[in-house]
């Protein structure tokens, strides 16, 4: 009898340790996601349909790309408040280049697409480079630098576009990367691009010197400096990667809307930080993985789609999102306590 009790106790203890290990690694978010999904399904049965699941995944893919960009600077104990307006200025600049070369798709379309995408990447990398140099080499607080860049990028986006959307994009862009297009007959382009970015980010963070050094830089800046790592360059490159990945997201958003929008990135900063932090990327730096960003992006998208189907007021949705950010920080600290 006592042996049976001991076996039950040890198995219970093993299950407890397994659950604590799971929560320490992934947080409470996977469980919350399941409950949210089922809860919205009870309110609106259409939420549980396959078509809606596909819609959630497609919407989440845009946000996951931007949250992945934000993750690189969060790992260094920074953040990028300019990400949203960088998306706007990239959208406008790339659209204007494409329209100037092939208006309404009349002209060398491939050249227009190539030039537009190249412009997007250059604009994104330049914005990230300026942010990174100011933070890493001049020691300016990331909040001040990226807030300043936010104003600069917003001014540029509205000035060069006149404050109006840029129309006349080539149909090839929309048919290749826009909503409704498919790759290989089944894969949505935003989802495909998101998967590629996630795989490359996972490789960079886990199998390169740069990736390991930004983890060290975030968790122990002094050790990174004493260890002889080129931490300033790596810190700068984190901001360059952030804005470059955001530029890729801007191309996807431009293809979805079919226009270059100077206001398209308005609320994307809060969403990208919320998705990354809610997923488990620490605001203290040095902690976070690609899988965390995926969970966070899915959470925000499930909430957004669920609240829309439940006909919750859009302003109230912003309140809910704010609580999600605060709750994510609380769960982040709770997860740290479980580890300790």
TrEMBL record:
It is a multi-pass membrane protein. Keywords: Cell inner membrane, Cell membrane, Membrane, Transmembrane, Transmembrane helix, Transport. It comes from the Bacteria. InterPro entries: ABC_transp_permease. The keyword Cell membrane applies. Pfam families: BPD_transp_2 (PF02653). The chain crosses the membrane at residues 21-40, 60-76, 83-103, 109-140, 152-170, 190-215, 236-253, 265-283, 290-309, 315-334. It is found in: Cell membrane. This is ABC transporter permease. It comes from Pseudohalocynthiibacter aestuariivivens.
